[in-house]
Write a structure and sequence with these properties.
alpha+beta, 4-stranded mixed beta sheet, two-stranded antiparallel ribbon, 47% helix
Length: 472
C-alpha cells in the first residue's frame, strides 16, 4: 500500500491552559484559593498583592510636626506616689487593677485569650499523680486512662485489657477491677464507665441521698430502657411512684452528663469567610463581593519595567501567566456574584420571611437565566458562602427538591421541613402530633406530603418520634 497525504477537517473542543486555570479556580473554596495564590506568588516574581498604602495619622489642629515629635521624645519626670496612693493601683493579692478595682472589658486586650486546652487523659493523669497508691496500681490506672475514648468510656472489657498487657506482669482481673474503681472516683464524675447506664449511676451515687435520688438511681440501674421509651405507666407500676415523683426523677436524670469526657475534647473550629454579602438597600436585596475574600493582585512594576527594556530576559512567559491569573481571579468573583444575585432574586421571599417561604430551585434554572452551563453553576455553588441577615449559607443551600401542591404548583423541601419544625414546636407536650397528623395538617394547607416523607424530614431535623416527645 502506497503512503499518501490526506486532509481532514474536524471540530473538537480544546481546553487552553488559561481556560483550564479558570475552571480550576472556579471550583476552589476561599481557603483553597488563598493556598493556590500563595503558590503562584512564590513561583512568579511578576505577581504581587496590592497592599494598602500607609497613611500617617493626622496631626491635631494647632500643632506642628516638630512640636509633635518633640512631645513624643520628651519623657515625663517620675513622681513619687504619696503614701495614701501607694496601693491604689493594686487589687487583691497584688493583681493589677484600674481605679475601680478591675480592668474595663473594653480596654482589656487580653480578655479573649484562653489557656491551652487540657485533654481528658492529661486531666486524669494529673489527678493520678496526686494519689498515694502503689506503683503497680498507678500503672494499671494509667493503662485504663489510655484505653478511654473521647467521651470518657472504657469500651474494652477488663479481660481484653488484661490479655493486651505483657504476660510477665501476671495481672489478675481483681487488680484491674480495683484500678477501675480508682479511676471512677476521678473528675469528671462518670468517667471510666463501660456504658451509659453505669455512667449515669456513677453520677447519681455522689449526690445527696433523698427520695428523688434513690428513685432516679433505681430507674437508671433497672429501668433505663423504659424511661428512654417514655413508658411512664409501666415505670410507675414497677417503681410504685406517682407522677410528681417520676417527673422529679426524670428531671434529675436528664440533668446528668452522659458524655463526661466530651468537655475535654479538642474542638476542630472551622472558620468560614463568605464570598458575597447580601443586604437590603431601598427595598431590594443586593449582593456584593466580600472585600475580605477578594484577593487583590497586580503586576510587579519593577520587573515589568525590566522586561520592557530587555525583551530577552526570559520573563515574558511569567508575565503572561500573571496576567492570566489576575484575569481569572476577577472572572471567578464576577461569576460568583452573578450566580449569587440570581439566587437572591429567585429566593426573595426567603430573605423576607425565612425558610417557610423557600421556593423550589434547580441548577438548570439559574444556568438558563445567566446563559451558563449547569456544571459551571454547580462549581460556583459548591463551597461558596453567602452572608445574609439570616446567617451564613452555602450557595447550594438554596437548591433542593420539591413537593407538588394541590393547585399544581410546587413547595420546596426546605420549606416543608420548616413547617414541620413549626408544627412540632407548637404542639401540646401531652398530645404531640404523629407523622400522619402532620401530613393531614399540611394537606389542609394544600401541600401533599406522604407520611413516610414526613418521617424522613423529621429524622433529618433530629426530631424524635411521637412516643419519645410525649411528656408525663
Amino acid at each position: 500500500m502506497r503512503p499518501s497525504l490526506q486532509l481532514k477537517l474536524s471540530q473538537h473542543l480544546a481546553l487552553t491552559p488559561q481556560l483550564q486555570q479558570s475552571i480550576r479556580l472556579l471550583q476552589l473554596s476561599t481557603l483553597e484559593l488563598e493556598q493556590e495564590l500563595e503558590k503562584y506568588l512564590l513561583e512568579n516574581p511578576l505577581l504581587e498583592r496590592e497592599e494598602e498604602e500607609y497613611a500617617p495619622p493626622a496631626l491635631p489642629p494647632g500643632s506642628s510636626e516638630d512640636e509633635t515629635s518633640k512631645a513624643e521624645k520628651t519623657e515625663p519626670e517620675p513622681s513619687e506616689p504619696s503614701s495614701a496612693d501607694d496601693d491604689s493601683w493594686l487589687g487583691e493579692e497584688g493583681n493589677y487593677a484600674s481605679a475601680s478595682g478591675s480592668f474595663d472589658d473594653d480596654d482589656n486586650e487580653y480578655q479573649d485569650v484562653q489557656a491551652a486546652t487540657t485533654s481528658l487523659r492529661e486531666h486524669l493523669s494529673w489527678q493520678l499523680g496526686l494519689m498515694t497508691i502503689p506503683v503497680r496500681d498507678s500503672t494499671l490506672v494509667q493503662c485504663l486512662i489510655d484505653a478511654l475514648d473521647d467521651d470518657g468510656y472504657l469500651t474494652q472489657s477488663l479481660d481484653e485489657l488484661a490479655e493486651a498487657l505483657p504476660p510477665e506482669l501476671e495481672i489478675e482481673p481483681e487488680e484491674l477491677q480495683i484500678a477501675l474503681r480508682h479511676l471512677q472516683y476521678f473528675d469528671p464524675t462518670g468517667v471510666g464507665a463501660r456504658n451509659a447506664q453505669e455512667c449515669l449511676a456513677l453520677q447519681l451515687e455522689v449526690l445527696p441521698a433523698d427520695e428523688t435520688q434513690l428513685l432516679a438511681l433505681k430507674i437508671v440501674r433497672s429501668h433505663l430502657e423504659l424511661l428512654a421509651g417514655r413508658d411512664f405507666i409501666k415505670l410507675k407500676k414497677l417503681t410504685g411512684c406517682d407522677d410528681d415523683a417520676l417527673r422529679a426523677a426524670q428531671f434529675l436524670i436528664r440533668s446528668l452528663n452522659p458524655r463526661p469526657g466530651a468537655q475535654y475534647a479538642a474542638l476542630d473550629a472551622r472558620y468560614i469567610t463568605p464570598d458575597v454579602v447580601v443586604r437590603k438597600l431601598r427595598g431590594h436585596w443586593t449582593v456584593n463581593v466580600n472585600s475580605d475574600a477578594f484577593p487583590r493582585l497586580r503586576i510587579n512594576r519593577l520587573y515589568a519595567d525590566i522586561l520592557a527594556r530587555q525583551r530577552g530576559s526570559g520573563l515574558a512567559g511569567q508575565l503572561q501567566e500573571a496576567r492570566w491569573l489576575i484575569k481569572n481571579v476577577q472572572q471567578r468573583f464576577d461569576t460568583i456574584l452573578r450566580v449569587a444575585q440570581a439566587i437572591v432574586d429567585r429566593q426573595r421571599q426567603f430573605f423576607d420571611h425565612g425558610e417557610v417561604a423557600m421556593r423550589p430551585l434547580v441548577l438548570r434554572e439559574i444556568a438558563d437565566i445567566l446563559g451558563l452551563h449547569e456544571s459551571t453553576v454547580s462549581r460556583v455553588t459548591t463551597q461558596k458562602y453567602m452572608a445574609t441577615p439570616r446567617g451564613i449559607f452555602e450557595l447550594k443551600y438554596f437548591f433542593g427538591s420539591h413537593v407538588a401542591t394541590e393547585t399544581g404548583g410546587a413547595c420546596s423541601a426546605t420549606a416543608i421541613r420548616a413547617l414541620i419544625k413549626q408544627l412540632i414546636g407548637a404542639e401540646a407536650p401531652k398530645k404531640p402530633l404523629s407523622d400522619s397528623q402532620i401530613s393531614e395538617v399540611l394537606g389542609q394547607q394544600g401541600i401533599v406530603v406522604a407520611r413516610r416523607t414526613i418521617a424522613k424530614y423529621r429524622e433529618a431535623l433530629s426530631i424524635p418520634p411521637v412516643n419519645l416527645r410525649k411528656s408525663i
